[in-house]
Amino acid sequence: MVNGTWVEVDLDAIRANARALKELVGTRVQLAAVVKANAYGHGMLQVAEALSSPRWVDWFAVASLTEAIQLRNHGITIPVLILGEISPEDAPLIVQHQLAVTVSRPEVVQALAAKTRPSDDPIRLHVKVDTGMGRYGVEYEKALDFIRWVRKFPGLMMEGLWTHLSSADDNERLTRAQLTLYAKLVVQCEQNRIFIPLKHVANSMGLMAYPAARYDLVRAGLSLYGICPKEKFKAPVRLTPALSWKARVALVKSVSAGQPISYGATYRTKKLTRIATLPVGYAHGFPWHSSNRGRVMIRGKMAPVVGRITMDHVMVDVTRIPGVRPGDVAALIGSEGKAVLTAHAQARAAGTIPYEIVSRISHSVPRQYNSRASAGAPVKSFRMIK
Question: Of 142, 184, 263, 380, which one is the catalytic site residue?
Answer without folding.
Answer: 263
